[in-house]
Design goal:
Elements: H1 6-18, E1 37-38, H2 40-56, H3 64-70, H4 74-77, E2 79-82, E3 86-90, E4 100-104, H5 116-137, E5 141-145, E6 162-167, H6 174-178, E7 182-183, H7 188-201
This protein binds zinc ion (ZN).
């Protein structure tokens, strides 16, 4: 799908490192619409494809935040919105349903290399992304932030990007409480369509 497995590492570091909280190991939320519960071996079998997708994902040559916007397959690339200086996309390996990334088109690792117009639009896109997720998923809270540098947990340290991670009450202890129970993630395609609908209802951009 042309996405990088490195994104997953970013989101892990984001929640576990920068924001200090213990995160749901599966990256799932118990509030997945239509979620089905499984146990034991079945859980492993159903869960495996998602993990294999991560393990086997091919790395995109070059920088995904440059390469993906150059293509015209936004749904396939999970690009949700294109602004003038920055864009919004779903994380291909989301930590929770609706996990968004906001990145400038400019390939830079440094906040200081973004000008005022870029910072302004990124701020507006982060704000809009929160609104879209609130509309589509009704989360209880958000983690929003940037990991600068590999030491800070950035999986793609060469291109600065913002994470918007919706959170739900109890999403850190659900799995340990329930034990073997697993919840199927909402598909990325369904997440994309729900967020596109929310974006289209939003008249602010
Ligand atoms: Zn880049």
């Amino acid at each position: 799908m042309g996405t990088s497995p490195l994104i997953f590492g970013v989101s892990l570091a984001l929640v576990q490192g920068l924001f200090g909280g213990s995160a749901p190991r599966t990256g799932l939320t118990p509030r997945v619409r239509g979620a089905r519960l499984y146990n034991g071996t079945m859980a492993e079998r159903l869960w495996a494809p998602w993990r294999f997708q991560y393990i086997e994902a091919k790395e995109t040559p070059g920088c995904i935040f440059v390469e993906l916007p150059r293509q015209d397959t936004d749904r396939e690339n999970l690009i949700l919105h294109r602004g003038q200086f920055a864009f919004v996309m779903l994380n291909a390996f989301p930590y929770t349903n609706g996990h968004l990334l906001v990145a400038p088109y400019k390939h830079t690792a440094n906040l200081s290399e973004l000008d005022d117009a870029e910072h302004l639009e990124i701020g507006r896109l982060v704000t809009a992304g929160v609104r879209w997720i609130e509309d589509a998923y009704r989360p209880d809270g958000f983690n929003i932030g940037v990991n600068l540098g590999r030491a800070a947990g950035a999986g793609i340290p060469t291109h600065v990007h913002w994470h918007i991670v919706p959170r739900w009450n109890g999403d850190t202890n659900f799995m340990t409480t329930i034990g073997e129970v697993r919840v199927l993630p909402q598909s990325l395609e369904e997440s994309y369509d729900r967020l596109v609908a929310a974006r289209d209802r939003d008249q602010s951009l």
